Amino acid sequence: MYAFFPGCVSRGGCPELYPSAVSVCQRFNIELVELTGASCTGAGVLQEKNQLLGDTLNARTFAMAEDMDLPIMTICSTCQGVMSQANKRLTSDPEYLSKVNTYLAEEGLEYRGTTTIKHLLWILVEDVGLSTVKSQIKRPLNGLRIAPFYGCYIVRPSDALDLQDNPERETSLETIITALGAEVVDFEGKARCCGFPLLTINEKNSVSMVAKHTSEVKDLGADAMVTPCPLCHLNLDGYQPAASQQSESDIDLPIIHLPQLLGLAMGEDPKELGLQKHIVSTKPLLDKINLAA
Amino acid sequence: MDTSLAIKRFDPEAENAKPYWQEFSLNLEQSATVLDALIMIREEIDGSLALRCSCRSAICGSCAMRVNGKAVLACKTRIENVSDNSRPISIEPAGIMPVIKDLVVDMDLFWNKVKEITPWLETEGVEPKEEYIASNESMVNLASVMNCIMCGACVSDCTVLEVDPAFIGPAALAKAYRFVGDPRDSKNKERLEVLDQYSGIWDCTRCMECVEVCPKDVAPMDRIMELREKAIQTGFNKTTGAKHAEAFTKIIEHSGSLDELKLPIKTFGILNMPLNMLPVGLRAAAKGKMPPVIHPSIPEVEKVKRIFDKFEEEEIENQEE
Amino acid sequence: MPEHDVLVIGGGLAGMRAGISAHKAGVDVAIISKVHPVRSHSNAAQGGINAALTIRGDDWTDHAFDTIKGSDYLADQNAVEVMCREAGGEIISLEHMGVIFNRDEEGRLGTRSFGGQRKARTFFVADITGQAILQVMYEQLLKSQVAVYEEWFVTSLIVDDGECNGIIALDIRNGQLHVIKAKAVILCGGGLGRVFEPSTNALIVTGDAMALAYQAGAPLMDMEMVQYHPTTLKGSGVLITEGARGEGAYLLNKNGDRFMEKYAPSMMELASRDVVSRSEQTEINEGMGIDGCVLLDCTHLDKKLITERLSQIHEIGIDFAGIDITKEPIPIKPGMHYIMGGIKTDIHGQTSVTGLYAAGECACVSVHGGNRLGANSLLDTIVFGKRSGESAAEHVLNKKLKTPHKKYLQQETERLKLLVNRQDSKDRVSAIRRDMGITMDEHLGVFRTTDGMNKGVSNLSKLQQRYTQVSIQDKGKIFNTDLIFALELGFMLESAETIVKSALHRKESRGAHYYLDHPNRDDTNWLKHVLITKTAEGPKLSTVPVVITDWQPEERKY
Known about the structure:
The complex is a heterotrimer. By secondary structure, chain B is of the alpha+beta class. Chain B has helices at about 35-45, 80, 110-115, 135-140, 145, 155, 160-165, 170-180, 190-195, 210-215, 220-235, 240-255, 260-270, 275-285, 300-320; strands at about 1-10, 20-25, 65, 70-75, 90, 100, 105. Chain B folds into 3 domains: about 1-105, Beta-grasp domain (Ubiquitin-like (UB roll), Roll); about 110-235, Fumarate Reductase Iron-sulfur Protein, Chain B, domain 2 (Orthogonal Bundle); about 250-320, no CATH class. In chain B, helix 8 packs across helix 11. In chain C, the strands form 4 sheets. In chain C, strands 1, 2, 6, 7, 8, 9 and 16 form a 7-stranded mixed β-sheet that branches. Chain C has a 5-stranded mixed β-sheet with strand order 17-15-10-18-19. In chain C, a hairpin with a 2-residue loop joins strand 7 (about 150-160) and strand 8 (about 165-170). The longest helix of chain C is centred in the last third of the chain and has 25 residues, at about 480-505. Chain C starts with a strand and ends in a 13-residue tail after the last strand.
């Protein structure tokens, strides 16, 4: 059982993510209690203006989960990363934690530093276990070539994400892809940046990053790219047409969310998974699995 | 301990000079570093292997290179920590900078960027007879940037430099913080004004590669964020980046979660929306991806607002002091 | 042909300081360095820089006495006076340049205790003082826009009729040899640590400047005075700063005893370096060590202090020895670290060759005599770097540039060509270097004997023979480090010979030169510097008296 933190984008700009995540969790009997009163993590942007404020908002969320005695589950790399970094700062300096708690006192909340935060990706590999994942496969993805794209916030910085103690997290996407029967398309940029944070500030560079990673993967013959971060998805999918234009080449690489990949392997209906809502058509991918509506 | 290394070599004097991989098998001590291995190759197998190295103790910054795709200092990287029995350890020159030979890169690009930020202290007025008074706290605060040994690891792996060589880069920006954060420097405003412009502090994509690879805990990205905070505080709040951060914060204050429609509107102002956002928005709408026009606030959003209020009250108090 | 008024060889602290000061004096100056300036070995100095701030009631004559006593009375007292008198002003000057020195509660420059000094007058930046000052000096260099020939290797000095007119250097990036004309040359090329194996020194510290001056006919002085730093890591020889002991760390033998009680009951761990190194070596030789080491214990120190003031050595312990110094003691041993000797200069940095100056570790004024106090080296580079810059600038005022005869470049080109084209020998430059290092460590170590040193002489002679035959693998022009190492080895072998010959000549024990066959200090016969000069007939040894001003030699006890 987990305190579910869906994040803002999974019901905003990527509305296909929330229902597919919930559906996948049901399949694995992952019980979810949604943290409806929790605020946005700040996404690193709010932290630019005031890091203490960001840490306070996140401490509030952690305290809420702590009171429920549940670990937090995220479905967004950015939520995962921002929360992990905040948690590290809060739990490594008792004076800092006390200071933050003074802002939470009015609401009757106090964070004691025991909350853990885990992305669905890690939960599947570490808590649910691969054999359980495999047991739910109804439509093995054999013959599919899928490239992993992590999203910066779930791979850096390594100490906040406990990667030294859990090195398998660094290849967790590949692990899931393989477990579902598909072939991993490894590429240099899999842990690099999608460019999303730069979108409003330097669109050219942001789009260049999209072009670089999607073209590289396309050239390697991948059928799709899977990502555990909806912000990455917004850029890699939403700005792929702009990337094609900027790089003067047709890319047409479907970008899918992690729960959608799982849902496909579990035998779910692509429409339920929201695969028709993508900017870059997922039809070629679904054709390959003989699923195109 | 038996190890195999694959080194990306380049001989500029060869006919049709092209980079190529060369494998080496070595028997090393348990505590050996990548540098120990490279020196062994150079001394006992192939004297033409070119690399820069000097202090062997992570203080001179000469030996930055990519090991298994990630920038490190060779002298500080233990072989046993980067070994994987399934394949040789890959060793390549640092990224971004052009390769002169083997593992030696041309660092002019790196140094030119540092030179761009006026990298010396600019004090004002007559120098005192004795030292400038400065708190130990302020000096310790600069310790992280002073730790920078100019090795180039951060530049090597910067994801923005990978697509845009005009970006001033993490090393130069961390160095800029060394001055902006120094109470004796009198040119804070002028420095921030320059850093606030194109290819400066707002062009960092916050990917944390530089924080991850820095061998001296300089955490350049954190320094860039501090520069952004200082820039906004100093009144440089007209850049898109500053307005974006401001808008985001206000939206969370108002609704507790992100209103994706409002964000670009508040960032740019409704009359200044970039035209190319229109086709993106239309495509999204066509696919049913448009966020709701009326964005629902989270339950008990007033509790969140109370926290913001407390911070605002404190800010006003601090300004009055 | 490039030309400058003043050419500085070496881009470390002394070199950059000299360059900036010559520039300020209004002459055209350039720095030539085989590595980028910030890669210079100055960056490895950790603990701090000494100065008596008279404004704060400290007395520079106190610092001078500590230095002279520390030198075992071999330092020239007029030179020590200059350095200690000017120190205070130089520290303030460094602070004004922007060095982020540690501060006390009032925001003023803070100090820590250091070896051999009765008062805390060591100014510091955590335990990265050398690096912190070097970075700031580089900032100032950029500001002054002094030109730097980066990654150029000086192969020889051009000296005609006893006057230095320039240099010949190899542009490492393209393998071209160039003559650079200059009215004055300042040698700031640092020490020669790599002559010994192991050493705390970086791989680039190969005695180039000393050998260049020696080959040009300038005498080297006190070359037998080699400092073994008390706390270096086993194996790699990486340095652990004296600052640790300055902050209160203990030295323990295998029984957990603070053995310095026996050897220096007053100053204990903060006695002068030669005394501490000999004490450690004695303990080790008598079986009181552990695996050839003794222990440095920082476990009782405040953790916050370690994080703030000793963070680099904390990292070094973890990265290079797998030990967290806050939790357990770290094994250390004496390791070759510094050479007090060097190119003989006067207090203005002038050598015996007209137009040739020297400053920093490669020079011997002498301010360090038989043993250097910790944190005096950084001071030396700043004070005498500045002074050499100024005096070189003055020297060139009415001087004309001379164009060297083209034979010099021709000869040098030939020499290098021969070396590169030599047929494949089974021997390697690295093997000769290692054998040299081991011989020097064994026979010119903390304790020396006539027998041992004679073996050293004969071994070095064999190594020099091997050197004339050794070949290199890389025959290319671009970034040929194989060639550079071979040239450096030539310099090292030359310097090594001067060390062992000087050591055999000084028939007494003084400072770091502990001669078991002559175990006592002999002021009657040996209150002198040993000079070694290269002549056509071979090295010539002579002596020159120590300059005494106010302090008569006394028995040296800590």
